[in-house]
Amino acid sequence: MAYLELNGLHRYFGTNKALDGVDVHLNQGEFLSLLGPSGCGKTTALRLVAGFDRPNAGTIVVDGKDITHMTPSKRDMGMVFQAYSLFPNMTARQNVEFGLKIRGQDRTHRRDRVGELLELVGLGHAGDRYPHQLSGGMQQRVALARALAIEPRVLLLDEPLSALDAKVRVQLREEIRRIQLDLGITTLYVTHDQEEALSVSDHVAVMYGGRIEQMGSPAEMYSAPATPFVAEFIGTMNRLEGTVVDGGQGTIETGGVIYQVDAARGKPRGARVLVLIRPETVEVSAANGGGPNVIRGEVLTHTFLGPVTRLRIDGGAASLIADMPTVRAAALPPGSKVDAALPVQEARILDLTEPLPEIHEEPSPGDR
Prior knowledge:
24% of the residues lie in helices and 33% in strands. The protein is an alpha+beta fold. The chain folds into two domains: 4-231, 3-Layer(aba) Sandwich (Rossmann fold); 236-351, CATH 2.40.50.100. The strands form four sheets. It has a six-stranded mixed β-sheet with strand order 6-7-8-3-9-10, with helices on both faces. Strands 13-12-11-14-20 form a five-stranded antiparallel β-sheet. Strand 11 (238-246) and strand 12 (251-254) form a beta hairpin. Helix 2 crosses helix 3, helix 2 (92-102) packs parallel to helix 4 (136-149) and helix 3 packs across helix 4. The protein is elongated.
């Protein structure tokens, strides 16, 4: 039996379906990231688990006990918010100690526990500082220690790194993962940053329109997206709409280009499909007569990404982006005529029976 269960959660705000049947089963000690754009319902799901809101339907179960209608104070949840939410008139030590004091823990236990946690988050030297004397990253470490002080059954983190600088975000997300593994605490993490989710999680659930589009390991989500939306949201993806010409041979036509994709074998003739190709799998070379599964085009732009450079290639109706080593990309500056060889075996095919979803970043009542 799973340790944390979200069973058929529904939450409505007027006519808006913030959650539309969300199911999650998480084993003890696992780390799950809820990933998606603003308005997808991920924060609403977290608020329901925390007890700050109630579902219109569905249940929340922790360690076999239904907590759907429990008050937040009785759920033993540790919560870390985006905005730190520290008490400004308390030192770091007093902030971490607060939850233990409220629960009536004796002074000796509180002192020892707070000392352990400040050391755990790397702030053993800063216990007597006030929040305004700490950097943003240090304040968030104090907030994490405070959430862990009560030894919660589940740790909940709501966009905890989004207010921090890029370098600090990377460092702190690694610390969060290290601490989570050390303590073996079941963790639910909300983020809109796909790199963040993929780097720290055991499982990732991509949400869209109040539903979970797909849930799996980071590797599964990246290499085998199950829907067009997941393909768009996880990593960068070339998406080529096409029509099956010969299902026996796996032949597809898109934008006047004919090529074969192994994953298209068996598809009925005339079926509309979406060909998904990661930029790093496209092989780009100087134009040399083309060939099977090759799109002839012109390099429009270079985007320097350190050891990798991203090329945007105009292939007419089948434009592409391709990632290649920077040292090789230098030989193909903008304006170069190139051949872009498509990966026959690594391309993924999805049936395209409805318009592709668009990603919106506007906040909505269902994701606040």
